[in-house]
Design goal:
alpha/beta
Length: 256
């Protein structure tokens, strides 16, 4: 791969990073807090690509002035021994490196959903503490936060409160409906599900991967995840309604 091709590939990668970071596309891959790093990396790649192209253009101009006949190339493509075509073939093949990049930009994969949730054990872990819930009823709360309060806090901070939370639907082979949110440490590669069971006023038809906003109250009912024997608390649903997929489908509100 010659330097012009290297510069072009760097430019495409940098532009793709900037495109993803300036839109919500990057949220399919990494958590929201990494956006500044993606912007910095994309900018650096674009600047490097432009600097490389400028350097190569200046070098070619100097060689033209120095030789006058264009036969002084140091890349071995002008000696008439067939290496010119070989260099061109290498350049064409090198462009295959950008095909995965176009695939990621043009055909962005969906966020992890019910299949991953039902085949991966819950990642719920005991939090270090619980912040005081804000005033109002129902109180909006993260799914991971509710699960921690319900199981490890035994629902003490939830007593007498109605809560509202959002997640996607997963249904176990036995027919138990779960509301799930995938929690991230860094990126989608390490995403793990946190699940709560649903009981009470559940819609008669639940479509896996459909997003629901549910309002309900704490119940002491709980079970164990059949995948890893992890804890799964329940929520007694009073109202459930479908909602669009949120801008950020992953839940970052958890701690190791």
């Amino acid at each position: 791969m010659n330097r012009q091709t290297q510069a072009a590939v760097l430019l495409l990668i940098g532009v793709a990073l900037l495109h993803g970071a300036l839109t919500d596309l990057y949220l399919r891959y990494v958590k929201e807090g990494l956006r500044p790093l993606l912007l910095a990396a994309g900018t650096l790649l674009v600047v490097t690509a432009l600097a490389t192209a400028w350097y190569e253009w200046r070098r070619a101009r100097r060689e033209e002035r120095g030789t006058g006949d264009g036969t002084g190339d140091d890349d071995g493509t002008g000696d008439g021994d067939g290496t010119r075509g070989h260099a061109h073939r290498e350049s064409r093949v090198s462009w295959l490196l950008v095909l995965p990049l176009f695939a990621l930009v043009l055909v962005a994969p969906p966020a992890l959903g019910s299949y991953s949730a039902t085949h991966t054990g819950t990642a719920l872990q005991q939090p270090y503490g619980y912040a005081e819930l804000p005033a109002g009823d129902p109180v909006p709360i993260g799914l991971v936060d509710y699960a921690g309060r319900a199981f490890y806090g035994h629902g003490r901070s939830l007593e007498g409160r109605s809560v509202r939370l959002t997640g996607f639907v997963a249904v176990t082979p036995s027919g138990t409906p779960y509301l799930v949110r995938m929690a991230l440490n860094c990126c989608a590669a390490d995403a793990q599900p946190v699940k709560i069971g649903l009981t009470g006023n559940i819609p008669p038809v639940l479509q896996p991967n459909a997003w629901l906003e549910v309002t309900g109250r704490y119940t002491a009912r709980r079970t164990r995840d059949p995948v890893n024997d992890g804890p799964i608390p329940f929520l007694r649903v009073t109202v459930a309604r479908p909602v669009p997929t949120p801008r950020d489908p992953y839940d970052e509100t958890w701690n190791n």
